[in-house]
Protein: HTH marR-type domain-containing protein
Amino acid sequence: MSADKGTKANSAAEIAHNWQLEGGVGFLLRLLEARYDELYQAVTGQSDVTPRQFGVLMALYQLGPLTQSVLAERISCDRNTMSEMLKRMTARRLVSKKSNSEDRRSIQVQITAKGEEALLAVVPAAAELQNIMLAPLRKEDRAHFLKCMLAIAKASPLSPIED
Structure:
């Protein structure tokens, strides 16, 4: 083993030995996601509209018809996942698709009356869920916490670290 590899191995071993799992971003994100998913089903009382589908319905409700690619970008979802999700949502008549009059190569997706009804049935519980999730934080810390989460989520993959 070269000296450089040995130094890296020692450094990695030292980092691993001192690592605090509860301080790891990935570990904490998984805990938050698990808590959110558990509470989403408990608070909304349904599993018909998943959290991601809620995002699709909310985007269409607020913004009107969108192309599939704009919708995917709006809710930060890859196109293949979006396509599969829209197939399921179309089959359940929560959304409808039509050809895009501005660009025949794309389709527009819009919320249906049934989709709007499903969304509006979940909105009060979703608002309550937001309050439940943020309840452990002081009221004055909640907006800052959400702002920090958004900054991390929207950062480019290899953004330089700033002080």
Helices lie at 3-18, 25-44, 51-63, 68-74, 79-91, 113-134, 139-154. The longest helix spans residues 113-134. The chain has one domain: 23-149.
